[in-house]
Amino acid sequence: MLNKYPFLHFLTLLLFKQKIKHMGIMSISVIMVTLVSSVLFISTSLQHTLQDTLAKQADFTVNKIEAGRSVKTPLAWVDKIIEIEGVSDVTPRVHGRYFYAPGEESFLIVGIDFFEEQSAKALQVLLKDVDLKQFFSTDSMIVGKGVKTFFQTHYYTDSFSFKTPHGVFKKVKIYEVLPNSLNLFTNDMIIMPIELAREIFGLGEDEVTDITFNVPNDAEWDNIISKLHLLDYDMRVVEKREIQKAYENLYNYKGGIFLILYIISLLTFMLILYQRYSMVYSNERKEIGILRAVGWSIKDILRLKFYETLILVITSFIIGVVVAYGYVFILGAPILIEIFLGGANLSNEVRLIPTIEFGVLGSIFLLYAVPFFTAVLIPAWRIAVIPPKEAMQ
């Protein structure tokens, strides 16, 4: 085995001598690591944000179904559900999509009973600065950032007139805009009193869109679902965990995300593999032959290539992750975020909350480093095992 200091000295000289080649490899590697890291950072951030929000939602939602489609839910169901033992926080809701006739845009109108305990608890963060007395002095609404921008673009600066199913226009004042930090969920949302939402959707006083409630004891969930189905055969029950699973399937490593990761990793492997196998016909072949001729063992050569590659891999990985962090959490991941949000109904500026998992970073490193080391050490070993005279030809 070679002495430690001559070995490190030669390694340093090798890195600087071939710096142009190394810079080219690092440039491609940084781009690949940045793309993979950006995709995983966006996915992880969206998953955490969604899960935190869903954790605060009601455990169950029920509504009425006729011929396979949702219809108006009778308010009388509230009393029936309250009578079931183990159920709490039963809340009727009125919500739905309001389509803007001149275009294809739509708003999600959510009617809230501001004085109902469960609703007030969910809205506490949003309404902490709202003067309810002033809010209820006239027909008012609280809108998301995307809705506000849309209204301003169409010259609705202070209010908007909704057309009810009876052909009557209802003018509603824009009271306040929801925080930008909630744009992922509230960008196209309008919050208003439940009575006003009923009027806009043409619902009667004894009708709602759906009913939500909680079941504190998780072990009772299946039993509660059975009791609910006995109340009315037209009742559809949706669990919170079903919604959580749907979002996991949407934002986890499936579909477009998995395809992007696969393409990027495949391109990374092929580029590095091609570059490293091509060295068999370059000056690097003679270099290995000379080292073998002056007394270097196969183990020494592989160790040299291992440390040379390790420096390139770690440097490229750190630079790529740092660039991805800045791109995603500082710049907001322009262009790439659209892959996750899809075709937005209204223009949305989502604020991604910095969320980093070491398991994710480990996955990125293995996805990048393993093919890199494989593509370097195998060709180096193939050259090192042949006679030095033949390698220098």
Automatic annotation (TrEMBL):
Locate the ABC3 transporter permease C-terminal domain: which residues? 260-387
Main subcellular location of this protein, as a coarse class: membrane
Q: Where in the cell is it found?
A: Cell membrane
Keyword list, A-Z: Cell membrane, Membrane, Transmembrane, Transmembrane helix
Membrane-related topology note: Multi-pass membrane protein
**Quick check: keyword Cell membrane in the entry?**
yes
- Note the PANTHER family from the entry: LIPOPROTEIN-RELEASING SYSTEM TRANSMEMBRANE PROTEIN LOLE
From the Swiss-Prot or TrEMBL record, give the protein name. FtsX-like permease family protein
Taxonomic source organism: Sulfurovum zhangzhouensis
